[in-house]
């Protein structure tokens, strides 16, 4: 079965022999986009977060064949070593990582989260409608799907807050 995915603005036609191939494995193994990481491979860690049609998802939990025609953004589409995105720069300034394995997923999740804030999604802490105050609790709750074994959470929150302000 052929599946057309537009990844970081470039269309790719993938021949998928096994419909059980996850989007994560298709990105990493077929397109060599290894910035998206495999941590748990069952939806617990967020290392595999990518943005599909504007929404963040765990790419290990979805099948490549389900994404015909979808627009997918991976960490490779966010910034390059010579031209880092503001969130990537902020993570560096605030030491928002140690081993760095979770960082692509953190950056992708935070990127989508900031867009959710711009769209006025309700508070994840209080449930209030309208633009929520970007408290540390609000950031932590919105980023709760992304785990960091090195426990850099306070610095990650600082980096995200800086970019949001
Ligand atoms: Fe997908 Fe952990 S690898 S959530």
From TrEMBL:
<dbReference type="InterPro" id="IPR052914">
    <property type="entry name" value="Aldehyde_Oxdr_Iron-Sulfur"/>
</dbReference>
<keyword id="KW-0408">Iron</keyword>
<keyword id="KW-0479">Metal-binding</keyword>
<keyword id="KW-0560">Oxidoreductase</keyword>
<dbReference type="InterPro" id="IPR006058">
    <property type="entry name" value="2Fe2S_fd_BS"/>
</dbReference>
<feature type="domain" description="2Fe-2S ferredoxin-type">
    <location>
        <begin position="1"/>
        <end position="78"/>
    </location>
</feature>
<dbReference type="Pfam" id="PF00111">
    <property type="entry name" value="Fer2"/>
</dbReference>
<protein>
    <submittedName>
        <fullName>2Fe-2S iron-sulfur cluster-binding protein</fullName>
    </submittedName>
</protein>
<dbReference type="InterPro" id="IPR036010">
    <property type="entry name" value="2Fe-2S_ferredoxin-like_sf"/>
</dbReference>
<dbReference type="InterPro" id="IPR036884">
    <property type="entry name" value="2Fe-2S-bd_dom_sf"/>
</dbReference>
<dbReference type="InterPro" id="IPR001041">
    <property type="entry name" value="2Fe-2S_ferredoxin-type"/>
</dbReference>
<dbReference type="Pfam" id="PF01799">
    <property type="entry name" value="Fer2_2"/>
</dbReference>
<dbReference type="InterPro" id="IPR002888">
    <property type="entry name" value="2Fe-2S-bd"/>
</dbReference>
<dbReference type="InterPro" id="IPR012675">
    <property type="entry name" value="Beta-grasp_dom_sf"/>
</dbReference>
């Amino acid at each position: 079965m052929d599946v057309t995915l537009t990844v970081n603005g470039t269309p790719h036609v993938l021949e998928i022999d096994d419909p059980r191939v996850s989007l994560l494995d298709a990105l990493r193994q077929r397109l060599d986009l290894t910035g998206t990481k495999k941590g748990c491979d069952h939806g617990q860690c967020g290392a595999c977060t990518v943005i599909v049609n504007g929404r963040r998802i765990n790419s290990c939990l979805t099948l490549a064949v389900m994404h015909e025609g979808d627009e997918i953004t991976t960490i490779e589409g966010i910034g390059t070593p010579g031209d880092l995105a503001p969130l990537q720069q902020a993570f560096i300034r605030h030491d928002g990582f140690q081993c760095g394995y979770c960082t692509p997923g953190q950056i992708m999740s935070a990127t989508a989260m900031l867009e959710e804030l711009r769209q006025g999604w309700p508070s994840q802490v209080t449930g209030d409608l309208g633009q929520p105050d970007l408290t540390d609790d609000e950031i932590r709750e919105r980023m709760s799907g992304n785990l960091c074994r090195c426990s850099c959470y306070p610095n990650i929150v600082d980096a995200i807050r800086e970019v949001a302000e």
